[in-house]
């Protein structure tokens, strides 16, 4: 998984632009092709928010979080780690918690929720980790310290409460059996 922390703001934005526009090269040449895509706007807000948070500008990052929610309907906590080449397919209703880790080339559809099971006191390992190239279908929910493996597909309206193996597809409720 490519950590977003190791890449510059420009490298992250360029990787996202390639996903949205299909073009490589200077980022400013790809922007006109992506201007009509709300997911690209959401990505730009989230990337700026991440950088502000990493530099210690927590208040400014939270203001951008509010802007993202108001402007394109996405709610991403500033402490989420999102790898390069993310694709927010219709970003309205997407909620991503503070300790979530998302790998490279992940697709997140509308209404996806990634967060903790209990919000009382959440430790970093209480948040989901999404592997490279995973696809999260519309209105799917991944809760707790679970891992969705690389290349896995989580179907629309699926509730994930335990690990998903790499390259597999899950649909419905994927909770561990009760003892």
TrEMBL record:
CDD domains: LbH_SAT (cd03354)
Lineage: Bacteria, Bacillati, Actinomycetota, Actinomycetes, Propionibacteriales
Family: Belongs to the transferase hexapeptide repeat family.
InterPro entries (UniProt xref): Hexapep, Hexapep_transf_CS, LbH_SAT, Trimer_LpxA-like_sf
Positions of transmembrane segments: none
Pfam families listed in its UniProt record: Hexapep
Domain of life: Bacteria
Record bears the keyword Oxidoreductase: no
Family annotation (PROSITE patterns): HEXAPEP_TRANSFERASES
Organism this protein belongs to: Aeromicrobium alkaliterrae
N-terminal signal peptide: none
Keyword set, alphabetical order: Acyltransferase, Repeat, Transferase
Matching Gene3D superfamilies: Hexapeptide repeat proteins
Protein name, per record: Serine acetyltransferase
């Amino acid at each position: 998984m490519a950590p977003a922390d190791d890449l510059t703001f420009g490298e992250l934005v360029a990787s996202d632009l390639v996903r949205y526009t299909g073009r490589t090269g200077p980022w400013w040449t790809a922007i006109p092709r992506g201007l009509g895509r709300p997911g690209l706007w959401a990505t730009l807000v989230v990337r700026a928010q991440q950088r502000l948070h990493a530099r210690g500008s927590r208040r400014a990052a939270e203001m951008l979080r509010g802007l993202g929610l108001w402007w394109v309907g996405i709610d991403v906590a500033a402490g989420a780690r999102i790898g390069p080449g993310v694709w927010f397919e219709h970003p309205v209703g997407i909620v991503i918690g503070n300790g979530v880790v998302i790998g490279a080339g992940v697709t997140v559809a509308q209404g996806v929720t990634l967060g903790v099971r209990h919000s009382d006191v959440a430790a970093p390992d209480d948040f989901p980790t999404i592997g490279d190239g995973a696809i999260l279908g519309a209105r799917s929910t991944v809760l707790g310290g679970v891992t969705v493996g690389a290349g896995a597909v989580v179907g629309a309206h699926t509730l994930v409460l335990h690990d998903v193996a790499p390259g597999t597809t899950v649909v419905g409720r994927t909770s561990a059996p009760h003892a």
